[in-house]
Amino acid sequence: MHALLNSKWTKAVVFVICLLPLGSLAWRGFHNDLTANPIEFITHATGDWTLRFLVFTLCITPFRKILRLPELIRFRRMLGLFAFFYACLHFTTYIWFDKFFDLAEMWKDIAKRKYITVGFTAFVLLIPLALTSTAGWIRRLGGKRWQMLHRLIYFSATLGVIHYYWLVKSAVLKPLIYGAIVALLLLWRFLESISKKNQVAARAVGPRTASLSG
Amino acid sequence: MLIRKPTDLNYSDVTPKSIYTNRRKFLRAMGIVGVSAAAGAAWWELASPTHEARATSKLGIASKSPFSTTEKQTPYNDVTHYNNFYEFGTDKTDPAKNAQNFGVSPWTVSVEGEVKKPRKFSMDDILKIAPLEERIYRHRCVERWSIVVPWIGFPFSELAKLVEPTPKAQYVAFETFFNPSQMPQAKYSGLDYPYVEGLRLDEAMNPLCLVGVGMYGETLPNQDGAPVRMVVPWKYGYKSIKSIVKIRFVTKEPPTTWNRSAPDEYGFYSNVNPNVEHPRWSQAKERRLGEIFMRNTLMFNGYGDQVASLYNGMDLKKYH
Description:
The complex is a heterodimer of chains A (214) and B (320).
Chain A: H1 2-6, H2 8-30, H3 38-66, H4 76-98, H5 103-112, H6 114-131, H7 135-141, H8 143-150, H9 152-167, H10 173-205, H11 207-213
Helix pairs in contact in A: 2-3, 2-4, 3-4, 3-9, 3-10, 4-6, 5-6, 6-9, 7-8, 9-10, 10-11
Chain B: H1 11-14, H2 17-21, H3 23-33, H4 40-47, E1 63-64, H5 76-81, H6 94-98, E2 108-113, E3 119-122, H7 123-127, E4 133-140, E5 145-155, H8 156-163, E6 171-176, E7 196-200, H9 201-204, E8 210-215, E9 218-219, E10 229-231, E11 244-250, H10 257-261, E12 285-288, E13 295-296, H11 304-307
C-alpha cells in the first residue's frame, strides 16, 4: 500500500481519474445527452464536483491519521486544485450563460441573492489557496502561516454546502448529506486539536499525570 | 397530423398498455421466438424510430384553437425527459425514468363538494365531456425554464357545467394520485403528499384553463401527468396539477402543496409575473429549452389579454 501510494504512476492515475467528471460532461455533450437544459445540467454537475473535491481534500488528513497512511499527503494539493478547477468551471457557466458577462448584473446578484453571496464567497476563498499551493509559497509564508491560511478551506466547504442548501426548492436531503460529511470532517479536526492540546498540557505537567492518563 | 373522429374512441381502446409496459420482455420474446405475424401491428409501433417505447397512443383532435401560439413547439423528447414530478424524484430526468410503471388504467376522477351533481368520472367519461381541442401553450416553470407544448384537452368550464357548482362554490381544489409504493422517491422530495393545488372558481372557468388529456397528438405520458391533468398557462408550472384523482368545489381558498412548503416563495395565485421576484431569484427572464440566451418573461406568461381582468385592483405582489 505504502509503495503504491508513493509511486509516481499512482499520482498520474489519480490525476486522470479527477478529470473523468469533465470527460463525462464532454462525452455527454458530444452525444447530446446533457438533458433538454444543458446549461443547467453543466452548472449542477460542476457545482456537485466542486463540493465533492472539497470533501475529498478534507478527507486526506483524517484518513492519513486513521488509516496510518501518511503518504496520502501527496494527493492533497492535487485534490484541492481540482476542487478549485471545478469551482472555476461552475463559476464560468454562471457568469457566461446566466449573466452573459454582465458584471453589473453579477454584482447585483451577489449582493442580493443569499445563495449566490455565499457561493461566490466560497469560490473567492479558494483563490488564495490555489495561488499559494506551490512549495515556493509554503517556504515563503512559513509552514505555520501557510497552514493558517489554508484553513480557509473549512469556510469554503461550509459555505459551499450552505450555497447548495439555499438553492434547492424542497429536496434538502442531498445538501444535508454533504453538510453532515463536512461537519464530521471538521468535528474530527476539532477533537484532534483538543486531544493534541491535552497531550501538550500533559507533557508540561509532567510524567505523573501522563502516566495516569496512560 | 393525426385526425380521427373522437366519437369512436374509448380510453381503453386507445391504450394497448400491456404491450408497451412490457416492452423489454416483449422484445426478448420476439428475439427468442422470432417475429410472429400476430404481433405485427404492435411491432410497427415499437419499431417506429420517432416513437421510442411510449405508453401513449394517438388521440383524435376535434379542432385547433385560436388560443394556440404559433411559436416553435418544444421537441417531444425534451418535454417528456426534462420536467418536474416530485413524486417520482426531484431531478429533471427522474420522472421519465421512474414513472414508467405508474398504473393509470383504470382511472377515476371524483368530482365533489359544492356541486349539485357530484360524480365519479372514468377516463372514458372524461374523454366524452367535450370535443377535444389542441391548444399550443407556453408553459413557464418557476425555475426559469419554459417550453411550448401542444396540449390536448377541453375547457375546465365544460366539466363544471356537468356537475353544476352551487353558488357557494368559490374555489376549486385538485388532488394528485398518491401511492408511496408506486412513488418510492416521493419521500426524499421534501414535500407533503398527496400533491394538492387550487384555483379561484373564476380562474378555473376562464376559457384558457384546460383539462389536459394529451399532448403532441397522443395521450399523456405518465411522467407528464397521465391520464388527466390541468393546464393553466398563465401560472407557474406547478399550478398545472398532474394525474388528478379528485376535484372539489369549495367555499374557501384551499391549501396548495408548494405554498405549504414555502409560503413566502410560492403564493396561492402564482401568476407568471416578471416584476415579482422569487425571494431567491429574479423572474424577469427565462430560458426556453433548446435556447442558449434567456428571453424576457411576459406578464401572465403572455396571456394578459385573456386573464388580466381576473385580477383587477389586486396587489399582485402581495397576492403572488
